[in-house]
Write a structure and sequence with these properties.
Elements: H1 2-28, H2 31-55, H3 67-77, H4 81-114, H5 116-129, H6 138-145, H7 149-173, H8 177-185, H9 190-228, H10 233-242, H11 246-274, H12 279-286
Length: 287
């Protein structure tokens, strides 16, 4: 009997040993370090490719400078006041455009989402206007405002507005009808229904719209500066290209990418803070 028990317990002990071994291997690298390390490895491979391709003659160095030359140009630009002025000009237009588009998108989205007749009446108009690319409006805004901040601002607001508007409409229309009926039965005022029922339900959608709009707004800001010539990183890239300073050009592209990472990280931090009560944020933290 004892031998049979030992025989039955042996596979179980082996499975526990295997699981313990796997757990030990998993503890070698904390999960929070895995993604950053993988991201760093990807950047390293990309940088090595950029260093080797010109050296091997696959591309011309004047078209794609070695990674070391681009990084050297970037380090040299950090002490140049014109770089920081260009970053400030870009962030100024981006932040102002995102604020205006978010305010308009949230206000209209809450109204349209809560009123089905208005939602049906505006659906076709939104579907027609939303796909129009902002760059198609460049001739019009240049004609109206010339190569000034206002031209880039109009393009940014137009492109970012639709992201916030559509998500807010979805959020406002997704309010639980039972909860809304309960609020009405308690004779809550319109302001109390908006602040205690509609806004908490729509907020996750609103934050998703703002996060999408933030990226679109940055892309349109740099594009407008590049094509129209308003001050900012886009104009600096155009000047570097016309001067044949390709190492400086690619360094500015890297700066633009870093700005995008910073913008996305800041929006995600704000989103986690504002939605700390939401199930999605709790689940993400638990994972």
């Amino acid at each position: 009997m004892t031998a049979e028990l030992r025989s039955a317990a042996a596979p179980h002990a082996e499975r526990e040993a295997v699981q313990a071994s796997r757990s030990t291997r998993r503890r070698v690298l904390p999960p929070r370090l895995v993604n950053p390390l993988l991201g760093a490895a990807g950047l390293l491979v990309f940088g090595l490719a950029g260093e080797l391709l010109p050296a091997l003659g696959v591309v011309r160095p004047q078209d794609l400078p070695p990674t070391s030359a681009v990084l050297s140009a970037l380090v040299g630009m950090l002490g140049d006041a014109t770089l920081w002025q260009a970053i400030y000009d870009t962030l100024y237009v981006w932040a102002l455009g995102l604020t205006l588009s978010s305010a308009a998108g949230i206000a209209l989205g809450l109204v349209i989402g809560q009123l089905p007749p208005v939602r049906r009446a505006t659906a076709s108009l939104i579907e027609i206007l939303r796909p129009i690319p902002s760059v198609a409006l460049i001739p019009l805004v240049v004609l109206l405002f010339g190569p000034r901040y206002e031209s880039a601002l109009v393009l940014v607001v137009y492109a970012a507005f639709w992201q916030v508007l559509v998500q807010t409409i979805y959020g406002a229309a997704d309010v639980d009808p039972v909860v809304m009926a309960t609020a009405r039965s308690y004779r809550l005022s319109l302001w109390r229904r908006v602040t205690t029922v509609i806004w908490p339900s729509a907020l996750p959608f609103v934050m998703t719209g703002i996060r999408l709009a933030a990226t679109v707004a940055l892309v349109l800001t740099v594009t407008a500066q590049l094509l129209i010539g308003t001050p900012g990183i886009g104009k600096a890239i155009a000047l570097a290209e016309s001067a044949g300073a390709t190492d400086r050009l690619y360094a500015l592209v890297i700066v633009t990418g870093l700005l995008g990472v910073a913008v996305n990280t800041g929006i995600r931090i704000a989103e986690r803070h504002l939605l700390r009560w939401h199930n999605s944020t709790r689940t993400e933290r638990g994972a």
